[in-house]
Amino acid sequence: MATLMDKLRGYLRSPQGQQTMEKAKRMASDPQNQEKARRFLDKLRTKRH
What we know:
There is one protein chain. By secondary structure, this protein is mainly alpha-helical. It contains 3 helices and no strands. The longest helix is centred in the C-terminal third of the chain and has 18 residues, at 31-48. The termini are far apart. Residues 1-49 are annotated as: Disordered.
């Protein structure tokens, strides 16, 4: 039985997985998206305390 990590690795090696990775890299390099991620993480951190 394949573990979840094995399935994930298989997906990321596939052509569709490669396209998804490239899209994620482009989105991560966008300053607006970086700011959104920072705000989201800040909200998570403040709710935990």
